[in-house]
Amino acid sequence: MKNEKKLIWQYHPTSDDRSPIQPLAVALACLVFIGLILVMGIMDIRRIDKTINDFIENRGSSVVSVLQSLAEENLNNLIKAYQHGNPDSLDGSQQRLNKALVEMGKGIDELWKENKLTTAYLQKFVSEQGLWYVGVMDREGRIIFESSRIELDIRSPENVTGEKIVHPFLDLRIFAQYAKEKKIGFIALNRKDGSGTVIIALDRAGLRYWGTRVSIEQAVEESGGAHGLGLIYMIAIDQTGKRYAQTGNVPRKWRPGDMPLAEILAGRQGLASRKVFYLGKQIMDVASPLKLNGEIIGVARLGLDRGNADRLIEENTRNMFVFMVLIVIIALLSMWLMYKNQKAHLAGIVEMERQLEKAERLSALGQLAAGVAHEIRNPLNAISMASQRLKRDYSPSDPEKMADFQTMTGVIRDEIRRLNGIIEEFLSFSKSRRLELREYPIANLIQKIIYLVREEAQEKGIVIHTQLPDDTLVIPMDMDKLQQALLNIIKNAMESIKQDGEITIAAGMNEKNLFRIAVTDTGCGMTREEVEKIFNPEYTTKEKGLGLGLTLAHEMIRGHGGEIRVWSQKNRGTTFEIFLRKNTKGQGKARNNETME
After folding, report:
1. Is the pLDDT assigned to residue 426 strictly greater than 70?
2. pTM score
3. Domain 434-596 maps to which CATH number in 2.30.30.240, 3.30.365.10, 3.30.565.10, 3.40.50.10170?
């Protein structure tokens, strides 16, 4: 398995003093946020639905407008044609009207053949169908059945005096002239065997009713059903509910309250609509006033396809609820993380209080120990001078005792030197260290350190490689303190190499505009547990001394506002990375006389 370097320790000089957010506050904020999303989502869905409804209603209005225009044109042409008495040239809606009248005539003829025709029936038929007159004549022109009596006051060969006549015989020429003057339209249907004639006549009101009906029917056909506009069905009804024309299958009739028909027929409301479920989907059922020549003659009912509108609204609703569910999940996860972080934070505060209490005790003991150490130096100096005098003035003359004497005085001298080094190191760590920052070339400082350790490295077979910037790169530093820190780190690297090895010292700017110094050795390396303790003043692996070198280096780098990272693998080596800010001159002066804590 390939061993890769891992970052197992990192120090950041800045601290995060933010208070932990209460989980309850997060829950309340999320509830408010969810409420806002819900309200905004509902408002957005309603806005989309209203926009779609308005669009569909406008589409329905367009269909009705086209229908009205075509119907008005057909009706006006029809009335003009019948009023001018030229039914032979009729086309379109006029032919449709003739066909309707012919069908009615055929029905009357069938009843006549079956001897079921009566005057009472014709009177009722005329009233229901909006006709003016229906009459049945035999071969000789004798009137057999008629809906009402006709008084002819037209001058003719049979009526020279021009007096009004009422008789059982009817001359079609006289009737045609009478109809022309009275502006009455009619058709006369002769049986194929010439045994009789059926006359159906329409006055202005009847002509308008039937003309309106057939004109609307033709308009519906000419508009093609407006299926391109999503029309599913359409029906036109008069004010009494009778049907003018229809296309498509219309659902059940409107129930009271479904549509404001009274308002629409009175002209107080232009359009009304509602959603209905029809043919397995939601459609818009639209009611619009039907006008001809500016007069409301009925209501047009349209069924319009909503297209993808309902799918769009359903998708938006689904997305809104999915988003809300995600927010709830995020809120629950955030509350759990906050609760966990808060517990860890509180535990850290408790541990910090313990450490602070311990630090206060250690501080008091340190001040006492510093005073004791300072007082010990005077007796040590006296002992050192005494041992030197003993060695110089009181050496024994006996050669055998001389060797023992020299060994003993050497041991005393070495132990005094070791004790004095321990005291110096202890005093150096315990006293206040104030930084005097000055801009200085970092390359020169590293070269100076290499010069100091070069001989010791050669004796141990250690090769030192360097990758340094030019002398123009300067950073604000306390040269003595930074030199001591780097020297301690390099010496620690040398001590980790038992025999023959390499140390690489590299310096330069990184991508974050920080100055980076890296010291890499091929020594014994460290475990994660060891790395986590190397800057603790209470931890050391040395048999001699206090092992405060890395602790001092750590304090000095931090005093410069820097950061240390340690990469290490057991039996593979260690890398110390130091990051310093390359401040401007003003910033460097602002940090003068800074005290390391």
Report:
1. no
2. 0.44
3. 3.30.565.10
